[in-house]
Write a structure and sequence with these properties.
The complex is a heterodimer of chains A (251) and B (276).
Chain A: E1 2-6, H1 11-22, E2 28-31, H2 42-48, E3 55-58, E4 61-63, H3 66-76, H4 86-119, H5 122-133, H6 138-149, H7 155-175, H8 189-198, H9 201-204, H10 215-225, H11 228-234
Parallel strand pairs in A: 1-2
Antiparallel strand pairs in A: 1-3, 3-4
Helix pairs in contact in A: 1-3, 1-8, 1-11, 4-7, 4-8
Chain B: E1 5-8, H1 13-25, E2 30-33, H2 44-49, E3 57-60, E4 63-65, H3 68-78, H4 91-105, H5 108-125, H6 129-137, H7 142-153, H8 158-181, H9 192-201, H10 204-207, H11 218-228, H12 233-237, H13 246-255, H14 265-275
Parallel strand pairs in B: 1-2
Antiparallel strand pairs in B: 1-3, 3-4
Helix pairs in contact in B: 1-3, 1-9, 4-9, 5-8, 8-11
Classes of the chains: A alpha+beta (251), B mainly alpha (276).
């Protein structure tokens, strides 16, 4: 029996939702609303050993590291969606590390600033930030304080995030020059991983990802987005009021 | 199958991972020493193989590998008949190995603050301002240029250093807790979780003796001694030319039941001059 605690179908939550759907693994989806700070409620923190979302639980074993959980799903369930030979598996793992370093934090930062925060009205934002400031754990408070203080700030940070994303977009476009998929000539968890982190970029950073400058990446996003499993995963969101893409900082 | 080529610095932190994996498995390879304190990893020759300028880089059968932990999985899977298997077969055991390795090595950032303070910073600052400018200018990404510039010029406050030491101490306690359950970090046998944690934390009894000692962390100390004695570990340290030569002293002292004394910057520079 598998349960997946997840937030909106984006980034870390999305990659696990897609992998489970693609492999037709039965699971119970449990929506955790990060914007209601549900992951900081005692019941969830105790169950999850720290409050990380997404969290996959299988027969009592908690999988809290979503990058590595994706690799686990590749190896534990068929179809594998990853090469089994050492060289191909290295490519999967290398993409995992590099996508995480280049995109995870950068996309989250830009998304939070350009989509989630502006979409909240003043009252909602105030209420949200006040509750974040009242969290029991000093560590969680510090995480949110960081986010709220850079709400106004840091053009530098945003510019650096933009540069990091631009470099990875260039790499993805180059990698798709030789074929339709990132690794081994077939759809794999590397594509799932990259799609989950990058599928909102044409809307979030249209100057970087568009039909003219990155035609291969646009076609690849459409190819993956058209898959039935991916569409099912993308339909598992709840924050329709904030628009299609919701970003919450990791805290 | 061709002989792997490895371009890397000392058997220390990420640089050391492929060296430990290849030496412990007994796979022959060619070692190309990249002097990190001279910033040779940002030279045009190095960047031609690894444009990100990270250490280490390995080449095997015409393919380049630059991610140090996946590289170790590749080495284990490519030479299954050499030495012990370092990756379990079961998917759940593999997940645990990777998650524990990632979690424990997340403390390496705090350790590198101490390493910068003690060794790398002073070594970098001993260069002329012109040399330093030149070194910074050829770093491939803006993010890393900013990081190196800050690190080269920065001196850490007592408070920052104490914070870094406490964070590393927390890492020691996490290892100690895991080793209470099993003889190795991720289960009954040696895996890449141990390899990558050892590569980062083999020197803690010397660096943070207030946390890494046999009273506070007896299982961690025993675990270190066990890994120092795995075939191939000391062969890897034998490749060191400067900082990681300290491993010989640490092993000797731990085996004699003593706490090793921190090596000084002068010791490291003397080693470097003798082996350069």
């Amino acid at each position: 029996m598998i349960a997946l605690y997840h937030f909106e179908p984006n980034a870390e939550s999305l990659k696990l939702l897609i992998a489970l759907k693609e492999k037709a693994v039965p699971f119970e989806g449990r929506y955790v609303d990060l914007l209601d700070l549900e992951h900081h409620q005692d019941a969830f923190r105790d169950a999850s050993g720290g409050g990380r979302v997404p969290l996959l639980v299988q027969d009592g074993e908690a999988f809290a590291d979503s990058q590595l959980t994706l690799e686990y799903l590749a190896e534990a369930f068929q179809p594998r969606l990853a090469p089994a030979d050492p060289s191909g598996w290295y490519d999967i793992q290398a993409w995992t590390v590099q996508l995480d370093q280049a995109l995870s934090a950068a996309v989250r930062l830009i998304g939070w600033h350009t989509v989630t925060l502006p979409a909240m009205d003043e009252a909602r934002r105030k209420d949200f930030l006040a509750r974040a400031a009242g969290l029991a754990k000093p560590q969680a408070q510090a995480g949110w304080a960081q986010v709220t203080s850079d709400a106004e700030a840091s053009e530098d940070q945003l510019a650096l995030a933009n540069d990091k994303i631009a470099a990875m977009v260039g790499r993805l476009e180059a990698a798709l020059k030789d074929g339709d998929w990132l690794v081994g000539g077939a759809y794999s968890v590397a594509d799932i991983n990259a799609f989950a982190l990058a599928h909102t970029l044409p809307r979030l950073l249209p100057h970087l990802v568009n039909g003219e400058t990155t035609p291969r990446m646009m076609a690849w996003l459409e190819r993956i987005g058209a898959r039935p499993a991916v569409q099912e995963a993308l339909a598992m969101g709840k924050h329709a009021d904030l628009g299609r893409d919701v970003y919450a900082p990791a805290a | 199958m061709s002989k792997p080529q490895v371009w890397t610095w000392e058997p220390n932190s990420n640089s050391g991972k492929p060296l430990f994996a290849l030496c412990q498995k007994g796979v022959a390879f060619d070692y190309h020493y990249i002097n990190m304190t001279d910033f040779e990893h940002h030279s045009p020759e190095y960047l031609a193989r690894n444009p990100a300028g990270t250490l280490p880089t390995m080449e095997h059968d015409g393919k380049l590998f630059t991610e140090s932990t996946p590289m170790c999985e590749y080495i284990d899977a490519t030479w299954p008949g050499h030495g012990p298997r370092m990756v379990p077969d079961d998917p759940l055991a593999r997940y645990r190995m990777r998650a524990i390795g990632r979690r424990i090595t997340s403390y390496a950032g705090a350790l590198s603050v101490i390493g910068w303070h003690n060794f790398v910073g002073p070594m970098a600052r001993s260069k002329t301002p012109e040399e330093r400018e030149r070194i910074i200018a050829r770093i491939p990404t803006k993010e890393r240029r900013i990081a190196w510039q800050t690190a080269m010029n920065a001196t850490f406050t007592e408070e920052q250093l104490a914070g870094a030491r406490a964070a590393v101490g927390k890492g020691v306690m996490e290892m100690e807790a895991l080793l209470k359950e099993t003889p190795f970090l991720a289960g009954p046998s040696y895996t890449i979780a141990d390899l990558e944690s050892f590569a980062n934390f083999y020197s803690l009894p010397m660096t943070v003796p207030e946390y890494a000692n046999k009273e506070a962390a007896p299982r961690y100390i025993d675990w270190l001694i066990r890994i120092y004695n795995i075939d191939g570990t000391m062969a890897a340290f034998g490749l060191a030319r400067s900082l990681a030569r300290r491993a010989f002293k640490i092993k000797e002292e731990l085996e004699a039941g003593r706490q090793p004394v921190q090596v000084t910057l002068e010791d490291v520079q003397r080693q470097a001059a003798a082996n350069g």
